[in-house]
Amino acid sequence: MKSFDEMLLKEYSSYLLSERNCSKETVGFYINDIKQFIEYMNGFKHEVIETGTDDIRNFFKSLIKLKTKHTTISRKLTSIKNFFIFLLSENKIEINPFENIEAPKLDKILPESMTIDQVNILLESISQNDWISLRDRAILETIYACGLRVSESVGMTMESINFKEEYVIVIGKRMKERIIPISQTALISLEKYIRSSRPVLNIKQSKYLFLNRFGGQLSRMSVWNILRKRATEAGLTIHMHPHILRHSFATHLLEGGADLRSVQEMLGHSSILTTEIYTHVSRKFIKEVYNAYHPRN
């Protein structure tokens, strides 16, 4: 990569971290996407500031030829587009080559979720007979009860829970704070964990609510491993991924009659369009009920 391009990437990375408050992980994803495009341009002996509209179109055509997933192409498009907006704002370029580029139309991908029975089997199968089980049950109960992202759950502190008023405070994307109701069932699991398990794990006097075996903050990957391990122990054969309890939360609320705006607020979506994807899942459920019970069907 050309040295000037590297300098621009460093400046953009600093901007994302300091001014946009993006996490290091998120910045890493953006930078990797942009690096791929810069290397593509360098292959033609061009620096990134020499990019034209045709270069961008040809780059994305090359990704399509490689059978890159549509969702990945869309993400890369957004990453690179935002980079050029930054370059324009910093007067590194005079014209944004993305000006006449349209985002590809993507098929909506319905989020995978669990049935209510599957969630109950998963959670009820965790014995709570030892410190680790108490913690695992508490964090999975909390994620499902509040529709949390995994990163939000591991970022919770002892001050995040209000037992009396039955709500939690979490910090979501772009450092936005939101208040979410929490179920009695989840509060009972949390109370057991805080009373009997956390004092044993908290050898480092950590501020975080959910701790690992060494007394430190539980990681996102650890929660994913907990979820897969507990699902296997419960005999569930469905594909597990970090957001499945969050997706299940939203789907089950809508199936139960919750309004879309309330679900949007609890999930922390900035746009109602993001939340609307769950209505497709809900409509599918309603159609199944109709087919099963309508007397003239």
SSE inventory with pairings:
Blueprint: H1 3-18, H2 24-42, H3 53-65, H4 70-89, H5 116-124, H6 131-146, H7 150-154, E1 161-162, E2 167-171, E3 177-181, H8 184-201, H9 220-233, H10 244-255, H11 260-267, H12 272-275, H13 277-293
Antiparallel strand pairs: 1-2, 2-3
Largest sheet: 3 strands, antiparallel
Using only C-alpha atoms, the radius of gyration works out to: 23 Å
CATH class categorisation of the largest domain? Mainly Alpha
CATH architectural type of the largest domain: Orthogonal Bundle
Kindly state the mean pLDDT as a whole number? 89
Say what the CATH topology of the largest domain is. Answer: hpI Integrase, Chain A
Proportion in β-strands: under 5%
Query: Outline, from the CA principal axes?
Result: globular
- Continuous helix count: 13
Distance between the termini: 63 Å
- What are the low-pLDDT stretches, counting only 5+ consecutive residues below 50? none
Structural class: mainly alpha
How much helical structure, as a percent, in the residues?
55-70%
The H/E string reads HHHHHHHEEEHHHHHH
The CATH H-level superfamily of the largest domain is Intergrase catalytic core
* E-strand count: 3
Task: Give a description of the structure.
The protein is mostly helical. It folds into two domains: 3-89, DNA polymerase, domain 1, CATH 1.10.150; 116-291, hpI Integrase, Chain A (Orthogonal Bundle). It has helices spanning 3-18, 24-42, 53-65, 70-89, 116-124, 131-146, 150-154, 184-201, 220-233, 244-255, 260-267, 272-275, 277-293, and strands at 161-162, 167-171, 177-181. Strands 1-2-3 form a three-stranded antiparallel sheet, with no helix packed on it. Helix 1 (3-18) runs antiparallel to helix 2, helix 2 crosses helix 4 and helix 10 crosses helix 13. The mean pLDDT is 89.
